[in-house]
What we know:
Elements: H1 2-15, H2 17-45, H3 61-68, H4 74-84, H5 86-104, H6 107-116, H7 119-181, H8 186-202
Helix pairs in contact: 2-5, 2-7, 3-4, 3-7, 4-7, 5-7, 6-7
Amino acid sequence: xxxxxxxxxxxxxxxxxxxxxxxxxxxxxxxxxxxxxxxxxxxxxxxxxxxxxxxxxxxxxxxxxxxxxxxxxxxxxxxxxxxxxxxxxxxxxxxxxxxxxxxxxxxxxxxxxxxxxxxxxxxxxxxxxxxxxxxxxxxxxxxxxxxxxxxxxxxxxxxxxxxxxxxxxxxxxxxxxxxxxxxxxxxxxxxxxxxxxxxxxxx
Length: 203
């Protein structure tokens, strides 16, 4: 029974080798694409502070999102900043795990080849294992660097938005106060209309 279970687990593990290698390749391509976009943004953001040039916000992702959602506030800005970092952050976490999986799966055939004296099979399995983990670690390193720098960028943009928020709230409250000084409320008008009637009734 145990031998059957071990054989089944071995065969199931070998099934996931090709899908894992495909996932690592896709994550690596995403990391290269993200690196290209990151370098473009870094070049365009040089010497520019958030909010100083509102006509060009191509590389200010959070400011562009806030401009498209003017009714959003502090919590919505924070959620949007986390959403903008979600994909590269996931890749930086998932890539090493996929590399570990792609390393461990070929170890079974490699050890079996070593036991059988088939060094060519062992070397082939180890080549796949080490190549996969190298690509996965490179992918994780690229995306981790991107996430670290973009987190600082988004923090700067969020700080600028929060610094502008009190000004907007104060102007809104002043406008509301000014609107209240223009005339009485409907309830006050009704009370003023009822007051003479009560005096006449008493007479």
